[in-house]
Structure prediction request, 489 residues.
Amino acid sequence: MTAAGARPRTGFLFSGQSAEYVGMGVELHREHALFRAGIDRHADRFRRLTGVGPLDVFADPAAQTRAELLQPAVFLLQVALAEFWTSCGVRPDAVVGHSLGEYAAACVAGVFGVEEGLELVSARGRAFAAVPGAGRMVAVGGSDPAELERLVAAQGGAASVAAYNAPERIVVSGTDTAMGELVAAFERQGLLTIPLETTHAFHSTLVAPAVPALVSAAGRIRHRTPAVPMALNLTGGWAGGGELGAEYWGRQLTSPVRFMAGVRALMDGGCTVFVEVGPGRTLTTAGRAQSDGSELWLTGLSPRTPDSVTVLEHLTRLEEAGIPVDWVRYHAPFRATRRTVGDGPGADGPGPDGPGADGSASAPSTELPFRIERVVIHESASAARSGVAVVRHRAGGTAREVVDVSVVDDAGRPVVEVFGLDLGAGTGEKAGGPDRLPPEETGGSDQLSPEEAERLLASLDALTEDQLHALLPLWAGPGASTPVASTEE
Prediction:
């Protein structure tokens, strides 16, 4: 347990290949400057190595079938996400990666730099691209690893245990014929099998032809002792001073991933908060399977949830867990990426840099005239269909107007809360703050107009356009019954 007042120890879990999805990271790149900077800083090197830009791979299903494009794209996505979390005050106390994710874990631990890592992972992807994508991988649920290992061993070298992910979750890899026989044997014993979508039969002898090229590329990279504790795939134990080097990556390619032991090392080392850095929820699901329920497990990016909602909900939960979140860094700078109240007739025209690359007008980018302490979006927000805005003025005796705003549903439960909205010296155009509806249209209440709400939400860099459409109806229209909280603190 973490002592009262102490910052919990945090473990970063870096996912491997097969968790990727079309559109991963695209919205976060568009909406948040911190993540965008982490990607864009290395985009030129990525393009020189692969021939395309990272966003092209994030968004293109065809590109994600090519190992030489997908693997460096996943690596860059993960290190940029790690940089994003760290910029927000969420620092890793220990790291562990899964297969491909171990390269990002090593980079974040300080074993090599991002540019070196891109070179190495690009070489890995090219080595895989030169190997026929034969064979397949299957996840198996069973409580007797020894029996699973016996069945796999009976296939000779045609199949291998590829990963020990959780107490009852093992991944097997091998030739199509061997895997067909194994799946039939597993199912006869009543074991659940799940086929995995991968480009190759990883961690089996089928990918051994890629080892020489990978080892050669890794030999050109200087490997340093991890500055952040790192649990290794090969052993499940901590990396020391000499394990990580060219030969390590060659062995890692064809050996089982001992992720379960790696997570146990982080837990035994005091980590109680775990963040999956990358796409998917595979690693947090596996980690939770050996947890007693006292740890916090935060999943990676998901195609089912907008990136901006995922990261904002995670930051809120991290703060509740005792990790000081740097909300100022998260929210700065606020920049509008769509037309907002107060824009002139030319607001939809080209920005300062001219038209976009496709010839269309680029969206304006202007700093908005207010600050915000933090925002909480509750899980109930997506299900709410109506609601009212509650405005609470903060007493302070200063000329600046600071309010807290809550959107509550029909049952009075908050679904979105904005704390410390600083509107400046006053409201209205004179102060540069958002315009309000005339009192006669709001019944004299402190109801925010839908236009003002849109300007506020757009400024947060936290909501997509789809979310705006879903959340704007929560802000009551003219004449709605809008409760106003007491102005006393």
The radius of gyration is 25 Å. DSSP finds 18 helices and 13 strands in the chain. The CA atoms of residues 276 and 300 lie 5 Å apart. The longest helix spans residues 67-87.
